[in-house]
Design brief:
Layout: E1 3-5, E2 12-13, E3 22-30, H1 35-48, E4 52-57, E5 60-63, E6 74-83, H2 87-100, E7 117-123, E8 128-129, E9 134-135, H3 144-157
Antiparallel strand pairs: 1-5, 2-4, 3-6, 3-7, 4-6, 5-6, 8-9
Amino acid sequence: MRTLIFTDFFPYRVFLPHYFTNTVTLGIGGNVGNCEKRFKELWRWFSSNKNFSFLASSPIYRNPPFGYVYQEDFYNATITLSTNLSIVELFGLVFYLERRFGRPKKRAFKNSPRTLDIDIIFFNDLILKRPYLKIPHPKWHQRESVLIPLFLEYLTQKGYK
């Protein structure tokens, strides 16, 4: 079932100027446990970290899984932050945060259920193609779970409610 979920922090937008030179858009998702609570905890983690300044987030989008379909619906959202971290530092941090919020180091199989998945969708205007990291995320424009939250975040940034 496709549903939009509005919480205190999703959607969110800041009217302050960017504090840092880099702008990153993250796609977050999960379908194990209380994803809304986990997203809120992740939001608070970024808000309390001196290396980040929150710019905007989308509503949470509940949608059916793709790939392996015999699992619970996914909850997805996008978050845009400004940061002083480099892409390499951010990549390491994303890996750390996924572990911190309960995702195992190795997945059982492709598209398996997970507590938290964080994808770097955009990092400034960077185009990067490495075996372990591609920016922008190579399939962002093919995934409803990214496109719909990203569009809704854009509308939030423009002041639409």
